[in-house]
Amino acid sequence: MGYHHVDTDSLEQWDDRDADVRSISAAAGLDYEGAPVGLRVYEAEPGQQLALAYHYHDEQTEAFYVLGGTLHVETPTDEFVVESDEAFVVDPGHAHRAHNPEDADAPVRVLALGAPTVDDVHPYDADD
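^ Cupin 2 barrel domain protein, sequence as received from the core. Prediction below:
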């Protein structure tokens, strides 16, 4: 089928992370490995992060578009504050941790895109 209409509210939790994550690409029949794009909707309460860990990718570019709330993205050199209707793009090889800080007043809702969908994630240790 060439078209997929996906109601994100009807999707199941995609994996076992703390933040609520729904995979639009999986609902559209795009397998995780080797798909041209991965597309997910996250909702993170204060104190939750989007990914499972502070990390970087060898090949994958990630983009985060904030639908509501404020997303914080920690990098080795800075912390970026991304407001609603703003986007943050991370090139391959650059460590990052997208999260909603403990002291946030509200959840953050984010549309995240990763391409290509390859299993190239590596944990990043800021102390190394």
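The longest strand covers residues 61-68.
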